[in-house]
Amino acid sequence: MDSSDIERKRVVVIGGGLVGALNACFLARRNFQVDVYEAREDIRLATSARGRSINLALSYRGRQALKAIGLEDQIVSQGIPMRGRMIHNLSGKKSVLPYGTNSQYILSISRKNLNKDLLTAVETYPNAKVHFGQRLVKCNPEEGRITVVGSNKIPKDVTCDLIIGCDGAHSAVRTHLMKKPRFDYSQRYIPHGYMELTIPPRNGAYAMEPNYLHIWPRHTFMMIALANMEKSFTCTLFMPFEEFEKLRTSSDVLNFFKEYFPDSIPLIGEQALGEDFFLLPAQPLISIKCSSFHLKSRCVLMGDAAHAIVPFFGQGMNAGFEDCLVFDELMDKFNNDFSLCLPEFSRFRIPDSHAISDLSLYNYIEMRSHVNSWQFLLQTSIERFLHALMPSTFIPLYTMVTFSRIRYHEAVLRWHWQNKVINRGLCVFGSLMAMGGVYLLVSYISPRPLGYLRRLPWTGNRFFWNMGRISLQTLRSH
Amino acid sequence: MDSSDIERKRVVVIGGGLVGALNACFLARRNFQVDVYEAREDIRLATSARGRSINLALSYRGRQALKAIGLEDQIVSQGIPMRGRMIHNLSGKKSVLPYGTNSQYILSISRKNLNKDLLTAVETYPNAKVHFGQRLVKCNPEEGRITVVGSNKIPKDVTCDLIIGCDGAHSAVRTHLMKKPRFDYSQRYIPHGYMELTIPPRNGAYAMEPNYLHIWPRHTFMMIALANMEKSFTCTLFMPFEEFEKLRTSSDVLNFFKEYFPDSIPLIGEQALGEDFFLLPAQPLISIKCSSFHLKSRCVLMGDAAHAIVPFFGQGMNAGFEDCLVFDELMDKFNNDFSLCLPEFSRFRIPDSHAISDLSLYNYIEMRSHVNSWQFLLQTSIERFLHALMPSTFIPLYTMVTFSRIRYHEAVLRWHWQNKVINRGLCVFGSLMAMGGVYLLVSYISPRPLGYLRRLPWTGNRFFWNMGRISLQTLRSH
């Protein structure tokens, strides 16, 4: 496609949220005529934020996408680095589990500010325009025709060469694809809901260490807290709906927090806790998979519209941003040819989106339960040890997902392989330790050990001594 | 609920297909005011059948539902009994696999005639009415309000106490439930499509044995044929879409049939085959699961609207009819109280619908591939033998699903248990046979067998002789 062809091509992006706005930047950079239709009003003009949102954690994949459009530094400067998980035990004791090496961290980001910055970035391109308050009411994805309705209630028809659905988990574009034959789709609500609470600043400063993701893991439920730029923390309580329903009065809530999150009560404030808990009911969490992501060479889904995931790996926004980056890379590869790009995007991206969806569900169990177990700590220590030894061969799952662009589905395959290696290694190690124990015991009881053992008195001792030392080091290494 | 309360209650059934019409009969019998809204015109007046449909196989569950409204004998008299599968091998050799005992059979039924009879049955109730050509355009399931539009294009609002969505796999009622929070849903298209062909009567008679379900199993694809009352057969070819796409001309089709279904060519007719194959493209097959089936005490889904399944167990209609029967049984149990019936219907019926959905997918593999293997024939023989021995303890899967009302999910559990028992039994049996073989060999080679074997010369021979006889009988018993 030569440059004049590209300038004549019109791309419509449905949704001016994070993924929609970022995508508009990518496409505007390629000189397409880009129109973004957003149902809500311009959030830069809105006085109050509508609805709530789980805090965002920006990591490598999202940063790489922002870097590609030259926004990484600006966005990162407004984030708060989180270097690990800070586990709050029932007793109030806190312990740190680093996310990676000393130089690796994720960033706590304000969704609203990020969205504002991205919208402003779109508007720097003369060939891109964001139309606010314009709701999609009809969509003919096969022919590239849409109808939007604004505040004047008069439907407006728009034709274009490509429709990109970035309109979130409850995507209107996707509902039109669903009617087409052979479109696979699943939506699943997990039995747990979430509720947001706030830890206000204390004397103008953070009330807890800001550079960690705070977790109160309680096996069947958990609370987390992420720092905001204005020195407060946003806490999110994840819990089965039936447990939420048991808490009917302020005193129920207070008793529940006294039992499970006692150290958080002075931080949130007793009165605020009793009131804020009943401001909004617990919100549901949905997991959406679909296939394929495109229809012919006219329509494609990205972000939550293609793969809404639960928030427990902090990858929702990052996966959506990586969608835009992957699509941009394919546009390079296929010289802006939609008829080649779109099928390849589906083929390439669907296994990855399914993988991060499953990993996100898995990570809820890890966060709320495993982080408290010695097996998990042992496993983590061994992984960190092996990663230090063989940095490119052996990479902990969290590192692959959060600090690399290894394809999500490959990360899952490597993770399974690594677990197998560790488990086999532990078996061998355990057997050797047991044999060593027996040898030492026999040596201790009898001054003259059995004949065949006598042949390796010194080397044997030395070997088992070293094995023990290595294993202790491994345990201590985190 | 006393009888005058019931007579004041209004139930709206969306869809006048098989399940909708049957359901209307059940509800009219309970004296509710029943209105059925069907988007199409009255099929009893239509001159041509629109669309195609896979043949129906009526079995026990469906018959029990028809029996409850007094229609069983009438419907059964219009069906053609099928006593087993008739397998067509590549060489043209045919073999029979009975479905159950001599008295057990399923019935090949015309969808159109059954639907006509059911609609006529609805109209025998003075308190029930079917409104044809009335399409659902709006639905407020929480408040029991719907809007339908007829040929005059004027929307009509209807309020009622209960909305029952029996509007098939692409249910409009379900799309309204999907918008409600915590409604789980999945739709999956299998990679295979289907195409219908016809074997016309030969000299006014059936061209093949009518009392069997004919199968041409070819591992990755298959063709089946069911007899019609007018002496023809409807063949259905199930095959991956990519294989369908390879057949572009009449001669491609003919060559394909010569290679895989040679004995069917003279039956279908060479010319008809080449033409009919291109009348319609291969049709997709969808599998739909959702949860829950109801919303509050106002709306409930039944039949394909709740659980569209692939047709390979012949249970689509039977499961839908059993929905109506189960609901009717719950209405008895809870004295027509919707607020108790609806949640219980979801709780009770969802595991069963998920089970028959999975079984139907499994049975495709059994039909197109397993039926040709000696392991399957051995397994089937053992199952039949054990069933004859212990009729209530050991029941083959097909019998549980097709000839009983054992709950589908219980049938799956029992099937897994039975398979485990058979496999363990085969291990023991195999070991005994091997030991017997060794014993006989040793006896044959040496006139004086080893000392410890000499102790059981006669009983040993006798035992292994009997084991062999029993196993041969088992193999021959079907």
Automatic annotation (TrEMBL), chains A, B:
<dbReference type="Pfam" id="PF01494">
    <property type="entry name" value="FAD_binding_3"/>
</dbReference>
<feature type="transmembrane region" description="Helical">
    <location>
        <begin position="385"/>
        <end position="404"/>
    </location>
</feature>
<keyword id="KW-1133">Transmembrane helix</keyword>
<feature type="domain" description="FAD-binding">
    <location>
        <begin position="10"/>
        <end position="324"/>
    </location>
</feature>
<keyword id="KW-0503">Monooxygenase</keyword>
<keyword id="KW-0285">Flavoprotein</keyword>
<dbReference type="InterPro" id="IPR027545">
    <property type="entry name" value="Kynurenine_monooxygenase"/>
</dbReference>
<keyword id="KW-0812">Transmembrane</keyword>
<keyword id="KW-0496">Mitochondrion</keyword>
<dbReference type="GO" id="GO:0034354">
    <property type="term" value="P:'de novo' NAD+ biosynthetic process from L-tryptophan"/>
</dbReference>
<keyword id="KW-0521">NADP</keyword>
<feature type="transmembrane region" description="Helical">
    <location>
        <begin position="425"/>
        <end position="446"/>
    </location>
</feature>
<dbReference type="GO" id="GO:0006569">
    <property type="term" value="P:L-tryptophan catabolic process"/>
</dbReference>
<dbReference type="GO" id="GO:0019805">
    <property type="term" value="P:quinolinate biosynthetic process"/>
</dbReference>
<protein>
    <recommendedName>
        <fullName>Kynurenine 3-monooxygenase</fullName>
        <ecNumber>1.14.13.9</ecNumber>
    </recommendedName>
</protein>
<dbReference type="GO" id="GO:0071949">
    <property type="term" value="F:FAD binding"/>
</dbReference>
<dbReference type="GO" id="GO:0004502">
    <property type="term" value="F:kynurenine 3-monooxygenase activity"/>
</dbReference>
<dbReference type="GO" id="GO:0005741">
    <property type="term" value="C:mitochondrial outer membrane"/>
</dbReference>
<keyword id="KW-1000">Mitochondrion outer membrane</keyword>
<comment type="similarity">
    <text>Belongs to the aromatic-ring hydroxylase family. KMO subfamily.</text>
</comment>
<keyword id="KW-0274">FAD</keyword>
<keyword id="KW-0560">Oxidoreductase</keyword>
<dbReference type="InterPro" id="IPR036188">
    <property type="entry name" value="FAD/NAD-bd_sf"/>
</dbReference>
<dbReference type="GO" id="GO:0070189">
    <property type="term" value="P:kynurenine metabolic process"/>
</dbReference>
<keyword id="KW-0662">Pyridine nucleotide biosynthesis</keyword>
<keyword id="KW-0472">Membrane</keyword>
<dbReference type="GO" id="GO:0043420">
    <property type="term" value="P:anthranilate metabolic process"/>
</dbReference>
<dbReference type="InterPro" id="IPR002938">
    <property type="entry name" value="FAD-bd"/>
</dbReference>
<comment type="function">
    <text>Catalyzes the hydroxylation of L-kynurenine (L-Kyn) to form 3-hydroxy-L-kynurenine (L-3OHKyn). Required for synthesis of quinolinic acid, a neurotoxic NMDA receptor antagonist and potential endogenous inhibitor of NMDA receptor signaling in axonal targeting, synaptogenesis and apoptosis during brain development. Quinolinic acid may also affect NMDA receptor signaling in pancreatic beta cells, osteoblasts, myocardial cells, and the gastrointestinal tract.</text>
</comment>
<comment type="pathway">
    <text>Cofactor biosynthesis; NAD(+) biosynthesis; quinolinate from L-kynurenine: step 1/3.</text>
</comment>
